[in-house]
Amino acid sequence: METKGKIHSFETFGTVDGPGIRFIVFMKGCPLKCKYCHNRDTWSAEDARLYTAEEVMREIRKYRNFIASSKGGVTVSGGEALIQPQFVLELFKRCREEGIHTAVDTSGYVNAEAVKEVMKYTDLVLLDLKHANAVKHKELTGVDNNKIKLFTQYLCDINKPVWIRYVLIPGYTDDEADLKAARDYLKNFKNIEKIEVLPYHSTGKIKWENLKAEYPLEGVPAPTKEQVMRAWGILSGTAES
Ligand code: SF4
After folding, report:
1. Does the record's keyword annotation contain Iron-sulfur (predicted)?
2. CB 35 within 8 A of CB 47
3. First-to-last CA distance in the chain?
4. pLDDT at 142
């Protein structure tokens, strides 16, 4: 019997979650509780829509021409997509059969052993680096970063292409010493192809309010363009230290 994925929604013309135009599958359920989460409504899997991989492929095939002409592909996101490894495996096997590029957008808070098979069919991992400081990581996300570090090392061991994503939040993730610690940590991984700094924004706040949950970053501003460029310079090692 085919596995059913617990799905929140689809986005048909994604342009920021991997190369080209992406069909994005937002999965339900997440073990983290990031204070800045802009997909707060994906945390619980209770009200998920259930799809088999073949049912999702039928949706993807409608956009095949756009995907192919832009050198795009399929990205699974969330929530945390890799807590449903069997479903992602079945979906990505089909994508591979049909020549469609595959990417996973993940917090990295997964057991490498449980996703080994999925990684064989994954072309690119979009991996969050939430915080370099272990204590601040726990405060920001609700979990410690040991598991994430092990998974990051595993991706390096199998030489999997990775794009790092760092959300810049004024007062939370923009401390210079923390950025330098993150830069030094990232230097260990030769499989990192790109580092992206994503400016924090509060557009997801409405989802917290709809769930009657208190928004933890009330009043925190978005970073300026200059702050984003500065952080990127440090993380990528191009800024003077
Ligand atoms: S890992 Fe992503 S979906 Fe989960 S809480 Fe953090 S930001 Fe939200």
Report:
1. yes
2. no
3. 56
4. 97
Ligand 1 proximity of 80 Cβ (cutoff 6 Å): yes
3-state helix, strand, coil in the chain (%, to 5): 40, 20, 40
* Alpha carbons 174 and 171: distance in angstroms, whole number: 6
How is residue 85 written in tokens? 């490894």
pLDDT tens digit sequence for 11-44: 999 999 999 999 999 999 999 999 999 999 999 9
Instruction: Scan for tokens 């680096």, then name that residue.
Output: 129
Per-residue pLDDT band at 239 (split at 50, 70, 90)? confident
CA-CA distance, 220 to 4, in Å (whole number)?
38
Tens of pLDDT, residue by residue over 104-151, are 999 999 999 999 999 999 999 999 999 999 999 999 999 999 999 999
Q: Domain 4-236 has what CATH class?
A: alpha beta
Tokens in use for 199? 């400016």
Closest atom of ligand 1 to 78 CA is 3
Residues whose CB falls within 8 Å of the CB of residue 61, separated by 6 or more in sequence, listed in order: 98
69 Cα to the center of ligand 1, angstroms: 31
Relative to beta strand 49-52, strand 22-27 is: unpaired
